[in-house]
Amino acid sequence: MDAKLTLKLDKSVIEKAKIYAAEHHHSLSLLVENYLKAITQIDKSEQKNEIEISSFVKSFTIGKGEISEDFDYKKERQNYLAEKYK
């Protein structure tokens, strides 16, 4: 169910947001709604400590999180994708 919300914002911010929304074929209401959804979902995830980190990103944490100078990220990504889609 939709409900109205009145916001008081800086005029220049509103104008820039309207231009951005028009360029991306969205309404300003949709942008605000999506932003509010995003920040409320983040808060819930942080409260539950359930921020999911992919195994690919986890694979970068070697030792103390340092990556060697000769690390070939393209090759590692290729290997990861090859394993994932076997």
Structural write-up:
With 86 residues, the chain is mainly alpha-helical. The chain folds into 2 domains: 11-48; 55-84, no CATH class. It has helices spanning 11-23, 28-48, 55-58, 73-84.
Features:
2 domains; mainly alpha
Write the layout of secondary structure elements.
Blueprint lengths: L10 H13 L4 H21 L6 H4 L14 H12 L2
Mean pLDDT: 80
Order of helix and strand elements from N to C terminus: HHHH
Give me the count of strands: 0
- Summarize the amount of helix as a percent range: 55-70%
Distance between the termini: 44 Å
Poorly predicted spans: none
Number of helical runs? 4
- SS content category: mainly alpha
Rg over C-alpha atoms, rounded to the nearest angstrom? 21 Å
Largest sheet: none
Q: Which shape, going by the Cα principal axes?
A: elongated
Share in β-strands = under 5%
Number of domains: 2
Task: Give a quick rundown of the structure.
With 86 residues, the chain is mostly helical. Helix content is 58%, strand content 0%.
